Amino acid sequence: MAKQAKRVTYRRIYDDPTPSDGTRVLVDRIWPRGLKKENAHYDEWLREVAPSTELRTWYGHDPKKFAEFRRRYLTELGDSEHAARLREIAERGNVTLLTASRDIEHSQAAVLAEWLSGSTD
Q1: CA–CA separation, 98 vs 28, rounded Å?
Q2: Tens digits of per-residue pLDDT, 25-77?
Q3: Is residue 1 one of the residues assigned to a domain?
Q4: What torsion, rounded to 10 degrees, do the Cα atoms 55, 57, 62, 68 define?
Q5: Domain contains 2
Q6: Would residue 3 count as lying in a domain?
Q7: How far apart are CA 86 and CA 63, in angstroms?
Q8: Number of domains in the chain
Q9: Does 17 reside within a domain?
Q10: Coil, helix or strand at residue 86
Q11: Domain range spanning residue 41?
């Protein structure tokens, strides 16, 4: 029996959910500004998988720093129990990583999606 490929995507938490999202996991350390918890469509909030406050502050969402942010974040992520929990969720089926970042292509959600898909260095 062939194993079905799991899909890992990422999007802003402010976007409406879609039927193909699978498990929706918020990967921000801080709750999204202006969003009430009862209006948020998420299954789990793994704030501990987000970059440290120090790394987030250093990065400041500056796209010119993204490559170095990615490298530091993957090092920081390591083999933490929170990273293991995220991988466990992704192994069960489709997962959508949620972030409040405006520039999702240069966010921790993008790095995590790449990491979960096994396409990081």
Answers
A1: 8
A2: 999 999 999 999 999 999 999 999 999 999 999 999 999 999 999 999 999 99
A3: no
A4: -20
A5: no
A6: no
A7: 25
A8: 1
A9: yes
A10: helix
A11: 8-116
